[in-house]
Specification:
Distance between the termini: 42 Å
Helix content: 25-40%
CATH architecture: Alpha-Beta Barrel
Radius of gyration: 19 Å
Strand content: 15-25%
Number of strands: 10
Order of helices and strands: HEHHEHEHEHEHEHHEEHEHE
Length: 331
């Protein structure tokens, strides 16, 4: 209970500091300035409540999060629990190619009270989840923290994963120190031109770099349990995009020069053109684009490197359908 009590104290401190920002919202780099308590919405199109699409056991995250690192296949993984994943609707970034566009763009989800959200977390723990994995929590950080406070008071004890697009406010990330056990941010782009083109955020890297630096100060080493599951740390995700190999290589160089080599790096090849993907990326990623990035990542010597198979074929992808009860069941 000591860890839960410590987290509750830190949550109270964070809520006190963040509450005024909701009246003139600057919770993310967009700094829309809207009064969310009065029902106004900015880029994320979210008011003061969290909207949840699904809360489920997810077996497709990095092996150290889903519990598949030393398990003999999917059946063994399911016996170990999976990642207790809560998918929020809305997003502050709005990538044109987002595979979760039903949530980020179309806002498909249901409003959840703080008590209901806490009950989801506790329910996932009871089902055997290895962690609570908050997906796209940036724009709903206040209700998420309020729900976490309730959950810790009622016995939540598994690690907390902050699964973010990386477009974060440094002020907010600093307030999460001691609350978040495992940071799982994207580092999508280095080029302002590319980030403006695909996500409407020319300042993406400027803000994401600051956030990832702070996350690495809080959690500089990815620490695993004897079974191979993550207990604490930082895993940076990067999705290689078609035609953007040079930008991916620049991101690897920046990580190597600025961030601890003992973090996790997850290099993804699963790009699939979705929603409003512009013409130049309306195609799968090729092996010739992914391979040099994967080889460079291996050569840089990151302590924990997670690679996906070389790019999927045109009929293979990992795009979930959140209109289904089981959005990750493709067959």
């Amino acid at each position: 209970m000591a860890d839960a009590e410590r987290k509750i104290r830190l949550i109270d401190k964070a809520l006190e500091a963040l509450a005024p920002l909701e009246r003139r919202c600057t919770l993310c780099p967009r700094k829309c300035g809207v009064d969310r308590l009065a029902g106004r919405t900015g880029v994320c199109r979210t008011g003061s409540w969290a909207s949840v699409s699904h809360a489920l056991l997810h077996f497709g995250e990095e092996p150290v999060l889903s519990g598949t690192s030393r398990a003999a296949g999917a059946r063994a993984a399911r016996a170990r629990g999976g990642s207790g994943t809560v998918f929020f609707a809305g997003c502050n970034l709005k990538c044109l190619f987002c595979q979760n566009y039903q949530l980020s763009w179309l806002l498909e989800g249901n409003a959840a009270t703080d008590e209901a959200l806490a009950a989801m977390m506790l329910g996932l723990q009871k089902e055997g989840a290895l962690n609570i994995n908050l997906v796209s929590p940036t724009h709903v950080i206040l209700p998420a923290l309020k729900a976490l406070r309730i959950a810790y008071e009622n016995g939540l004890r598994i690690p907390l994963v902050y699964n973010s697009n990386g477009y974060e406010s440094l002020e907010v990330v600093r307030l999460l120190d001691g609350i978040v056990d495992i940071y799982l941010p994207d580092l999508k782009y280095l080029s302002p031109e590319i980030s403006k083109r695909y996500s409407g955020a020319a300042d993406y890297f400027e803000n994401a770099a600051e956030a990832v630096r702070e996350m690495s100060l809080q959690q500089p080493v990815l620490i695993l349990r004897p079974e191979g599951e993550a207990r604490r740390g930082l895993i940076v995700r990067h999705l290689v995009l078609p035609g953007c190999t040079a930008d991916s290589l620049a991101i690897l160089a920046w990580l190597c020069e600025n961030i601890s080599p003992f973090i996790g790096l997850s290099l993804m090849s699963q790009y699939h053109p979705c929603f409003r993907a512009p013409d130049e990326i309306s195609r799968p990623l090729s092996p010739q684009e992914y391979r040099p990035v994967a080889e460079r990542a291996a050569a840089l010597g990151f302590g924990h490197l997670f690679l996906q198979p070389e790019p999927f074929g045109p009929d293979e992808h990992l795009v979930p359908d959140f209109r289904k009860k089981e959005p990750f069941r493709w067959k």
